């Protein structure tokens, strides 16, 4: 069988599965039925799936702990459908080359493509192990998503995450940290010279947050960026507010741990600062890694991604590479092109087949 006929056969199987997943609502934390479909499909393919919650994975049947391990990962959950859909988000509709449906692009296309690629790789001897992981709760960075699955897997040397990147390798991804900032004042009557206005107390901090620039700038991700996105203060027009609260969205590049940025912010603000979490760090892979180098040799162009994925929870090298476009994600009338899935399967096979993966363990 030629590579072209292999890709076409795998594409047919991928589209069949993707249609089933689209027709099965799987909003984050409610992915049970989608996980059931994956278990049934994987079993039909002749493999023995492992399930933990709504995370489903397959181990290489020839797994050897002496070999390095490649993880192929994509998520099965979706966001909620926005109100402006003109089609039924749970009805897989094909119009020409386009398959419409919620989750088709983010990231059903990558999910079903990587599953087909796993089938090929384990049937053709490689110098590395392969694990396919379909993870839950990615859209909400949930406790029962990939965080629950990774500790149950053997050591991973490198991962490819099937998020929609137009099949260009995202070799760096910004991290995320959300800060709550509170300034305290003293209430009083607005008509008299009473109280301490908490809004005025926080003004200097607002200016610092707007103007501050972190010194380390990434070639792929640019600056670490802070944005004040929410502000709350006051109860009515004639009461001096005694509390002003800000929410700050922080997107870190690979040169900063979230803890470092937090400390720098805390030292400069006079207001009270707390972080909701430190765990969603920026991620990156060495541009000299063999996977990246083969991508470049195949004509792909590495870039940095501003959007968050399960990479943020991976402690090992990883990159994002998948069919579809990030701009379609979370949008009305989301779609993937069937030709994009067929191309992705071919690109993945060329990328992975025969590559030598260095051990990082």
Keywords:
six-stranded mixed β-sheet, alpha+beta, 8 helices
Describe the structure.
This protein has helices at residues 3-22, 32-44, 104-123, 146-149, 198-211, 258-268, 290-297, 338-352, and strands at 50-52, 55-59, 69-75, 93-95, 98-100, 129-135, 158-161, 170-173, 177-184, 188-189, 225-233, 239-240, 243-251, 272-275, 283-284, 303-305, 318-320, 335-337. Helix 1 (3-22) crosses helix 8 and helix 3 runs parallel beside helix 8 (338-352). It is built from eight helices and 18 strands. The relative contact order is 0.19. Strand 1 and strand 2 form a beta hairpin. It is an alpha+beta fold and 361 residues long. It is elongated, with a radius of gyration of 23 Å. The longest helix has 20 residues, at 3-22. Helices cover 29% and strands 22% of the residues. A six-stranded mixed beta sheet has the order 1-2-6-3-7-17.
């Amino acid at each position: 069988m030629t590579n072209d006929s292999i890709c076409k056969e795998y594409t047919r199987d991928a589209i069949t599965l993707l249609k089933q997943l689209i027709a099965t609502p799987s909003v984050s934390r409610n992915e049970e039925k989608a996980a059931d479909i994956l278990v049934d499909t994987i079993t039909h393919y002749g493999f023995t799936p492992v399930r933990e919650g709504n995370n489903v994975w397959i181990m290489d049947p020839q797994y050897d702990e002496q070999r390095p391990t490649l993880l192929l990962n994509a998520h099965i959950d979706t966001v909620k459908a926005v109100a402006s859909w003109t089609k039924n988000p749970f009805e897989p509709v094909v119009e020409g080359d386009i398959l419409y449906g919620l989750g088709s692009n983010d990231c059903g296309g990558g999910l079903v493509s990587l599953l087909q690629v796993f089938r090929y790789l384990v049937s053709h001897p490689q110098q590395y192990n392969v694990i396919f992981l379909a993870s839950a709760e990615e859209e909400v960075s949930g406790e029962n998503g990939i965080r629950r699955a990774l500790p149950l897997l053997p050591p991973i040397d490198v991962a490819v995450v099937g998020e929609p990147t137009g099949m260009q390798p995202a070799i760096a991804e910004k991290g995320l940290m959300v800060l709550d900032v509170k300034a305290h004042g003293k209430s009083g009557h607005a008509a008299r010279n009473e109280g301490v206005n908490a809004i005025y107390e926080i003004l200097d901090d607002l200016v610092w947050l707007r103007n501050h620039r972190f010194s380390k700038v990434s070639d792929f991700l640019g600056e670490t960026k802070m944005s004040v996105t929410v502000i709350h203060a006051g109860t009515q027009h004639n009461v001096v507010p005694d509390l002003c609260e800000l929410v700050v969205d922080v997107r870190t590049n690979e040169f900063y741990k979230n803890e470092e940025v937090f400390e720098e912010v805390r030292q400069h603000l006079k207001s009270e600062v707390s972080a909701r979490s430190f765990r969603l760090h920026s991620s990156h892979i060495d541009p000299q890694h063999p996977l990246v180098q083969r991508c470049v040799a195949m004509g792909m162009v590495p870039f940095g991604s501003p959007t968050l994925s399960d990479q943020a929870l991976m402690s090992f090298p990883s990159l994002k590479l998948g069919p579809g476009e990030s701009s379609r994600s979370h949008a009305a009338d989301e779609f993937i092109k069937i030709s994009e899935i067929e191309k992705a399967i071919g690109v993945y096979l060329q990328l992975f087949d025969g590559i030598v993966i260095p051990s990082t363990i």
